[in-house]
Amino acid sequence: MIPPSDVFDLEGFQRALLDWYRVHARPLPWRRTTDPYAIWVSEVMLQQTRVDTVLSYYRRFLDIFPNVASLADAAETQVLKAWEGLGYYGRARNLHRTAKILCERYGGIFPDNEPGLRSLPGIGNYIVAAVLSFAFGKPFAVLDGNVLRVLARLFSIDRAVNDAKARSFFQQTAQMLLPSVNSDLHNQAMMELGALVCTPKHPRCMECPVDRFCTSRRADLVDRYPIREAPRKVPTRRMVIVVLVRRDGRMLLIKRPSEGLLGGLWEFPNAEIDAAMSFEEGMRRLCASMECGSTLSRSRPVGSVRHAYTHFKVAAEVFQVDLVEEPNGIRVMEFCDWLDRNRMDHYPLSKLTHKVLRLIGKEDR
Ligand code: SF4
Asked: How far, in Å, CA of 152 to CA of 162, rounded?
């Protein structure tokens, strides 16, 4: 919590922060609008993704889907294609689902209240506060990673910023800092301070507009904050990936189920294998499962790819298999397609799939 008013000059803090923000704010496109749709899209993209990366995606996404109705009318494949490369594809599927609900139940208009927003898929505390603050000017404190870090340092908070149980404590602290007017600018300023000055490494305390309010700076304890719980060890999964190539050069891609990790994206046939199995054996079994064993004319290892997801890493060996004829097992598969490289550009592909394409020389490095 923030210290009592005889110790902490709340108005002085708010003024210093806002004065600094008015001079130093980056001209980010989502700050020039109060359209809840554009703000919602930007905030969903900004979760787990850097501003630099989001900029081009945000502009392109709004070009393709300029409003809720255009997003609701799109096919899921089109939405995933526009999202391709941003990762965390559940975000894109939730955007799409929410746009449909907004059109069906709310006439395409965003609710301007907490219960209405919370009832929508993929909209949690952060997005609720961001939309209510930035689109509707309501006094909701926005708490992202930057704000958590600033708060932890400002008040030397001895609770871990990644501890879910400490969330409400940080949220209340942020809420207490919020001014009654310009609360939206205050929220932007807190985030901007964390992004530009109170950075994760080497914070620029000498340039900080609120250094005189900062307890960890005064106590020379900036390096101690924020406190984090040690991350869990991320396991590595071994996989084989098989690029099946027909005589006409087309390659087989399979669509992942709509729900779950990378849902709705297209990828080469693959399988996870346990530690005891060789990659060659894994490749043979995968090919056998698609009944392409007898049609193999050549199979060869083409190299390794690595990829890191949030909760696990992938270490995969890639094999190219040149086929004499189409395997029997594939004919009964529902969501698969034989594609040449140009046609693949119309399908949403995972980053791992792009890495495989680079490995087999089908994509620029
Ligand atoms: Fe962060 Fe340093 Fe400013 Fe404190 S003085 S808020 S640690 S940049």
From this structure: 11
Residue 100 dihedral angles phi and psi, to the nearest 5°? -65, -45
Question: Measuring from atom 1 of ligand 1, which residue has the nearest CA?
Answer: 198
pTM above 0.85?
Answer: no
Other C-beta atoms lying within 10 Å of the C-beta of residue 162: 14
Question: Token pair 């359209």 is at which residue?
Answer: 35
Do the beta carbons of residue 302 and residue 224 sit within 8 Å?
Answer: no
Pairwise CA distance, residues 318 & 316, whole Å: 6
Residues of the chain with pLDDT under 70: 1-6, 293-297, 328-334, 363-365
Beta strand extents in the chain (DSSP E only): 236-245, 251-255, 266-267, 270-273, 296-308, 313-323, 336-339
Q: What is d(CA 114, CA 349) in angstroms, rounded to the nearest whole number?
A: 35
How do residues 239-268 score in pLDDT, each as one tens digit? 999 999 988 889 999 999 888 888 889 999
The residue type found at 180 is S
CA dihedral over 258, 261, 266, 269, signed as positive or negative: negative
Query: Residue 305 in contact with residue 342, Cβ under 8 Å?
Result: no
329 residue type, one letter: G
* Ligand 1 mutation target, pool 205, 206, 227, most atoms within 8 A of CB: 205
